[in-house]
Amino acid sequence: MTVAYQTPAAPADASEFDLSEVLPTCKPLGGLLDIEYDWDRVEVPDSLSWFEKRWSTRRNPLDFSGVWRFRELLPFAPDDMIVTVGEGQTMLRRSDRVAKYCGLNAGCLHLQYEGLNPSGSFKDNGMTAASTHARMVGAKLAACASTGNTSASLALYAGASGHFRCVVFVGSGKIAFGKLSQALDYGAVTLQIEGDFDDALMRVREVCDEANIYLCNSVNPFRLEGQKTIIYRILEGMNWEVPDWIVVPGGNLGNSSAFGKALIELKKLNLIDRLPRLAIINAGGANTLFRLYEHDGLRWNDGEPDEELVGRFYGEMDAENRRANTLASAIQINRPVNLYKCLRALDATDGVVREAHDPEILDAKAQVGAGGFGCEPASAASVAGIKALRAEGIIAPSDRVVGILTGHELKDPDATVNYHRGDGASAKREFSNAPIPVANDAAAILKALEGLT
Ligand code: F0G
Predict the structure, then answer these.
(1) Which ligand 1 atom sits closest to the C-alpha of 144?
(2) Which of 142, 225, 260, 448 has the fewest Cβ atoms within 10 angstroms?
């Protein structure tokens, strides 16, 4: 066996599977798998700063990639199998304006802009890894269900690499246009399922198991290996110092699960000396994790979480026909597939979960936007969450906080324009910056500019 293998996330099950196996996903404990490594047989650098040397060899596409330049920390693929499109050229920016908005001291808030990836969201970090595994096993067709960004990313990798074709499942009427346009333009077979994301994900899992199609949702453990590198790049941006908090929006909980795994491994490998605390922010209209974790006390419990509690929760949800509903459409998810792995991450990092409602999310988004760059609504949940945790006194003003901005501003221009104009579901808000109608006349224009000149 190579140094890497697949193993169930449930610690009670010590089975090991070779990387060449594509395992069915409809199993107990969510059928969740991890990629594990025999670290004694991997040459891991002594310190994280070792990775800086890759900046000088970035003509090598593997060293250019913000994922694969850390390949010693996700050593599952031979170099010549790696599928990369130059993902992960993202950045950590100090943001004093947003810090002030959240109630943090100047210099204490950094935002990690993952929207700068080739397809405009953090998904590329994971899709390069899943695409690599798909290539390793010779997959000809890959699929995913998506609220939009996963499908955009998979479509991009299928189109750019040419190693496989792809089919994407999206819910009806639930997808931001920027994202749908990407899937279409990159040539994905795009199925609009009658139903929402939760329905689409259940169907794609069934279809993939049945028809031997390679599944690229975050239930795919290879994807999460790629998403670990967001943590490495954050640490690099912080000059390898561990922040006090990392705050991330929670949808299907792939990112939070990957972050937990990355941090646990780094600590085990003595590459960091302590773990930051993780805060996961649900949208108020899609708050399964918040309710289960903060209200019902669901915990990782050494790998034996209370699955009956979760079953009852979903049973009630179905009986009441509660569907996820938020303007942050990327995280409009009621049945997060990585729930159990995410509990492990919360356990390791003394984590907390909060919910942010749409008006708070959109205000936070406007503040991020006003600082330049911007983000899509779901991403701003992290900023709204930081503000709420600061107000509660859980985050201190002097804590060093990193907020993850998961997707690009232009993914969902409707949400932005509606907020600023006070159209659609958004009433005009404090930071609305509506366009000003003005006559086709210089005098009228100058009048409109009074006070600015
Ligand atoms: N932010 C954005 C912009 C997303 O697109 C997603 C997930 C999340 C946050 C949540 O991340 O699932 O790791 O907790 N989007 C998925 C999709 C579901 O289909 O594009 P998570």
Answers:
(1) 19
(2) 448
